[in-house]
Amino acid sequence: MSRHSFTRRFSFNSARKNSRESKQHPHVCKDPNHAHHHHSSSTSSHHHPSIHTQHHHNSLQDKRQHSRRENPDAEKVARGIFGDVPLTDTERRFLSSAETGHLAALEQCVEENGNLNVNCRDYLGRTALQLAVMGEHYDCISYLLEKSSMDTIEEALLHAIKSENVKICDMVLGHPMYSDKRARMQLEFQHGFYDQEDSSSSFAPDITPIVLAAQCNNFDIVHMLIQKGFNIQRPHHYFCFCTECSNHKTFDRFVHSRSRLNAYRGLASTAYLSLSCDDPILTAFELSKSLYTLAETEKEYKVR
User: Which residue stretches does the UniProt record annotate as biased composition, category Basic and acidic residues (predicted)?
Assistant: First the structure.
């Protein structure tokens, strides 16, 4: 290789190396003073990362303090899975007393605050009566039954049925609203097919106490409900074009199909068949034939 060729090749390699270094370090400056200043700044930032974190933390604290000054009641708003649940201190104490079964504290909250909402809900959507039912605090249940609304009592009954607590079911069914046929019909009308689903409720609007008890197959609770006049209405034929069925399909076909499924699940229950039919065996065969036919029409009924 000639000397001239070697010199050209060495110059080309040096140029490629410098270009590669400039790409890796685009901010490198040839000025030694500027380079020293840049190195000091980067070293300072590298060795003190907590400066930026502390600044961010301080700005967050300032924002929170500003929000508290603008809304002094912001601390009293609980963020739950059902959205913001504004609760006063008294309501919090009231719900806590129901959960722990402290009857004296429960009575004190009601007596000292005439405007207390006894149907208030916590961040999980639970009422005081529901909390008392879940904790099996019988004294609190008896006290709250006298003050709660019909919707709250009905939901508490559903939770008692789900937990299969016969004693609490008997207590709730002893409420006058279940003895008064007119009041019960009014409640069923309020929780009809067209009622929008309540996001704070654990049950669909078409789940009635007798349907849930039958699905749980609890003989004692089903017997109590039948004695109170509860029954499960058999759904109409799939191709029924009566006003009710036509409106249901137009309003929400999915909810219509689900309500039919829930009704058939209750009707097929061993407990309900045994306690509500004169001939449970014959009724079971008739129901089986109906469901077999429905499975060919409505795919939701087909066993996969």
Answer: 18-34, 59-78
- Please give the sequence-ordered ranges of beta strands (E in DSSP) within the chain, or none if there are none: 77-80, 83-86
Give me the mean pLDDT over the 45-57 stretch: 46
Q: How far apart are CA 93 and CA 106, in angstroms?
A: 8
Question: pTM higher than 0.70, yes or no?
Answer: no
- Rg (C-alpha) for the chain, rounded Å, is 35
Which domains can be identified in the chain, with CATH numbers?
76-148 (1.25.40.20), 150-304 (no CATH)
Q: What's the CA gap between 39 and 28, in Å, rounded?
A: 10
**Whether the Cβ atoms of residue 145 and residue 129 lie closer than 8 Å to each other:** yes
* Span 64-118, pLDDT tens digits: 444 444 443 333 444 444 445 688 899 999 999 999 999 999 999 999 988 899 9
Distance of alpha carbon 145 from alpha carbon 259, whole angstroms? 29
Rounded to whole angstroms, the Cα distance separating 203 from 212 reads 10
How many other CB atoms sit within 10 Å of the CB of residue 274? 15
